[in-house]
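Continued from yesterday's entry.
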Amino acid sequence: MKLFKFRPLGTCKQLERIEDIIENGFFCCNFLKFNDMNEGVFKITCKNSDDIFSQKQEYKICSFSGKDSLQNQLMWGHYANAGMGVVIEIDVDNCSKIKQVEYATTFPNDLDSVEEILTHKSKDWEYEKEFRYLSKDSISDNVRIGKITKTYFGTPYEKLGNFSKIKENHENLKKYHKLRYNLKNYLDEMKIDYEDFEFNF
């Protein structure tokens, strides 16, 4: 299974974070740190909500996207700094801790487990095609999940005839290209494949 992680590359700190992922694994956190304001919400029936809340906090989670995400401009825009970022590809073999997220128009009820609660979201998020690593076993916040097989770099504006002029006037784009050069050198040292990604229009 191929999964993809979008990351911004606009500052030295973000470059260091990507290098840390490659060396030490992906950062995992509990559900309260995610950007969905209804993360982990479900319709309660006869369940003990305090007990369910405690169980949800026991899980460390890391989000990835599926194979169609590379061509999704919303993903590049929201999670990779408007295209000035990267997508890290990983290869996961038979990982029982990877769960596909399901999307619905209403909050789910009568789910059988906390893992099911943590893998159901509103249809508003369906464009993410999300997969989640869920674990209660992780001691460290950084977890090696699959094998990193490739890194894709965003290429905003690069096919335009006036790209040089745009870059000259776009401070963030200039910073990105410097950081991209540094990251490519690092990937060469780590012997990790990479390519400049172009959208299919």
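--- second protein ---
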Amino acid sequence: MIVSVILFVAVAGLYILHFSGNKFNGAGKDDAIEGDASSELKIAYIKVDSLVVNYDFAQEMHDGFTKQQEAYTKEYGEKRNRFESQAAAFQEKVQRGGFLTQERAMQERDRLVGEEQQITRLDQELSSKLAQMQADNNKQLLDSVLNYLKVYNKDKKYSYILNAAEVLLGDETQNITKDILVGLNARYSKEKLK
């Protein structure tokens, strides 16, 4: 308890000294403003969600991912349906006594269990491939945007370019999403023509 009180008093003292020190020694905001222009902080932001929705490269990657996802879903669905049909036929055959021996019924059951395990592995494998494809797409998209921002910022000289998702309130004049989107799409069109 005593240590907590001492720490509280120390922090409060530092707080008071810090802010009152600026008033007494003249070191305040005016010095920072009067500094040379090169130290001026220039900040812009991008609405990344809007950028991704309208960036041609991102759309092409998304379309490719969707096609691959549909192909995997179809492959898995066909195998799953075939298995379920075989399992239902097996169950019906067991109920009507269609197997000549108990051993033959056990062999067929074991085969179906093995096939079901293969289908489960296929599902996991396809899901893993899709997750990897999505991660690769995200990395390519991020690299594309960051590389373009470096080129764009050579002329603009922003100190920071932020993701608007993290900005709670911002001046719309600092929103460079449209400029970046136009530039990205123009660059992508040129690369696509090559």
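The two ends are 72 Å apart (CA to CA). The first helix runs from residue 2 to 24. Will compare against the first tomorrow.
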